């Protein structure tokens, strides 16, 4: 199992109170956010027992879900449903997204 799985699971717990606030103002956004935030660690877990393209596919789905979660949070912030998101929370999302990006696409080449 990827070590980043634990970070993704911790993000579920950190995002849960924000979902509750968003739900009061925008139930549809909260529902989508709840699905995307849980999809990431679930796909990491499912992919960990796969090989080849199947593993890569699950990690790609996890990556997309984590990006979707961050975008939903940023949207809720823009609508003022939630207070400004912390730099610490952004760093955690960046860590998960960066790790999954490297798993799916390989290490980036610097120029």
Short description:
By secondary structure, this protein is an all-alpha fold. The protein contains 4 helices and no strands.
Structural overview:
This protein has one domain: 23S rRNA-intervening sequence (de novo design (two linked rop proteins), Up-down Bundle). With 111 residues, the protein is mainly alpha-helical. It starts with a helix and ends in a 6-residue tail after the last helix. α1 (4-25) runs antiparallel to α2 (27-48), α2 packs antiparallel against α3 and α3 (52-78) packs antiparallel against α4. It has helices spanning 4-25, 27-48, 52-78, 87-105.
Please supply descriptive tags for the structure shown above:
111 residues, mainly alpha, de novo design (two linked rop proteins), 4 helices
What is the H-and-E element order? HHHH
What Rg is obtained from the alpha carbons, in whole angstroms? 14 Å
Low-confidence stretches: none
Give the quaternary arrangement of the chains: single chain
| Shape verdict | elongated
The CATH C-level class name: Mainly Alpha
Q: Write the CATH homologous superfamily.
A: 23S rRNA-intervening sequence
The major beta sheet can be summarized as: none
Stated plainly, the CATH topology is called: de novo design (two linked rop proteins)
Q: What distance lies between the first and last C-alpha atoms, to the nearest angstrom?
A: 31 Å
**Structural class by secondary-structure content:** mainly alpha
Q: Estimate percent helicity.
A: over 70%
Determine the strand fraction and express it as a percent band: under 5%
Number of domains: 1
Helix count, per DSSP? 4
Mean pLDDT: 95
């Amino acid at each position: 199992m990827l070590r980043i799985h634990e970070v993704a699971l911790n993000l579920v717990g950190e995002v849960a109170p924000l979902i509750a606030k968003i739900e009061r103002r925008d139930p549809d956004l909260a529902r989508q956010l709840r699905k995307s935030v849980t999809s990431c660690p679930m796909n990491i877990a499912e992919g960990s027992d796969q090989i080849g393209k199947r593993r890569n596919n699950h990690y790609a789905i996890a990556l997309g879900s984590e990006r979707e979660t961050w975008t939903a949070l940023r949207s809720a912030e823009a609508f003022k449903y939630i207070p400004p998101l912390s730099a610490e929370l952004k760093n955690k999302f960046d860590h998960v997204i960066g790790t999954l990006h490297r798993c799916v696409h390989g290490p980036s080449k610097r120029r």
